[in-house]
Amino acid sequence: MKSFSTLSGSETTDLHQPLSHESAIPDAKVDARIVWFMGPRSAGLTGVGQHSLALAAALSKYTNFKVETVDIDAKPRSFKRYWNQFVRYPLHAFRVARSTDMIILYAEDLSFLIPIIHLAGGRVCLMFHHVQLPGHARGLVERLKSLYVQMFLPLAPKADLVLVEGPAAAKDLIEVAPVNPERIKIVPCPFEDKYSPLDAATPAETRAQARSILKERLGLEIGNALMLLNVGSDETRKNNLTLFQALAKLQRKDLLLVRVGKAFNATNRMECKTLADTSGINVHFADSVSEEDLGYFYQAADIYVSATLHEGFGRTVIEAQMAGTPVIASDIPVFRGSMGDTFLAVKNPTNPDEWVKAISSLIDSPSLMDELREGGKTNALQYSPDVVCDGLHRILLRAF
Fold first, then answer.
1. The pLDDT value given to residue 167
2. CB–CB of 4/84 below 8 Å?
3. What domains appear along the chain, each with residue ranges and CATH number?
4. What letter does residue 131 receive in the DSSP assignment?
5. Cβ of 22: how many Cβ atoms within 10 Å?
6. Taking a C-beta distance cutoff of 8 angstroms, is the pair 232, 316 a contact?
7. What is the pTM of this model?
8. Which of 32, 192, 232, 280 has the most CB within a 10 Å radius?
């Protein structure tokens, strides 16, 4: 079995003024080869991995680009993964840099490849997703990851091109690394239309169908509960504990919280579970969910909640909007940039009382539910892969 595989093909842009396909292609003909270095194959369903996979696939529609993706056939935290990332990846990058127009690194944790690619005479584009803020790393794994990214942060300014997901991420990056602002380009996350697999006559019928499917496939009994959904890993910056504290205060027996995502921080997960057990919170943890089932989770929910304190973009809120699920989220710049006024914002996301107020107000207002549902669907349209990729195509052509 190969340790990593190569698969063929598969100016900042205003998000509200998407580029047309025609405007993205200048008269000059370019025949460019792009090699996209990904992370562990089994981590492809993470937000970072999804971002690159969707963009690489969408770029394949352009006949003047040949896009190849390279990934590591290993589990995220395994010896095999690190052997391939730190030994075989550098050798492969040095080799292909001589025959490619651009190497794209899918995340900041591959920044160490930048000088190796330059040494071989190649050009490199770094996708930088988010800056770890002080105080947002707790526990051994989170701190090690933070130290690792900080160690290679000085290499980011040496990339020929740096792609970030939004203005907030660009601002954070410039504050911590001397990256030339002219090299930073904004390419938001693209989203394929796969989070709303059901299309019943009404939202209520869609929820009922999705819940029935989850019961049949996963044994999850939701019934007529008011389901709150949160998707993402257990990390300090995700602020999940505050959400649990709010539900402990709310004391509504008709609420079910479903948490989808791995326990990246085991201590954080245990704190949430302990609080749920002692306060009577009805909660279901789903660590591993397929892409198909994730769509059913989104459509089974009454409300999507995200208490995160910091994101580079925050994919899950847009995924929820695509599925027609109203969103309550932290009032942080990245969400204001990606959702505008199409979500219910919690001004102080570290205050459980504000979450109690927001959740209660939305549950008690069907008209607001409908408004956020329709506004969210409209908002999500701007993130289709074709729209986003037109902007990336023009950025890369100008870089060539």
1. 87
2. yes
3. 4-190+384-399 (3.40.50.2000), 203-383 (3.40.50.2000)
4. P
5. 7
6. yes
7. 0.78
8. 232
Q: Are 44 and 374 in contact (CB under 8 A)?
A: no
Question: Among residues 45, 22, 103, 318, which one has the least CA distance to residue 190?
Answer: 318
Strand order across the beta sheet in which 65-72 lies? 4-8, 65-72, 32-40, 102-105, 124-127, 161-164, 184-186
Give the Å distances, CA to CA, from 347 to 163, 316, 360, 366: 29, 19, 15, 22
The candidate with the shortest Cα–Cα distance to 300, out of 192, 191, 196, is 196
Q: Where do the DSSP E strands lie in 12-120? A: 32-40, 65-72, 102-105
**Six-digit token string for 224:** 């007529």
pLDDT at 129: 85
**Phi, psi dihedral angles at 17 (to 5 degrees):** -130, 70
Q: What share of the chain is helix, strand, coil (3-state, %, to 5)?
A: 50, 15, 35
Token pair listed for 75: 């589990």
Residue range 29-45: mean pLDDT, rounded:
79
SS3 96: helix
Supply the pLDDT for residue 266: 83
The token duo for 305 is 């909640």
Give the number of residues written for the chain. Answer: 400
> Of 107, 65, 70, whose CA–CA distance to 91 is shortest?
70
Query: Which residues have C-beta within 8 Å of that of residue 42, sequence separation ≥ 6?
Result: 74, 75, 76
Partners of 104 in beta bridges: 36, 125
Beta-bridge partner residues of 124:
103
Please tell me whether residue 199 adopts helix, strand or coil conformation. Answer: coil
Whose tokens are 């079910």? That residue is 256
Task: Over range 199-219, report the average pLDDT.
Answer: 95
Distance CA 26, CA 41 (A): 35
Q: Sign of the CA dihedral 313, 315, 320, 321?
A: positive
Residue pLDDT, tens place only, 333-368? 999 999 999 999 999 999 999 999 999 999 999 999
Maximum CA extent, the chain: 66
Helical H runs in 60-164?
79-83, 89-97, 114-119, 140-152
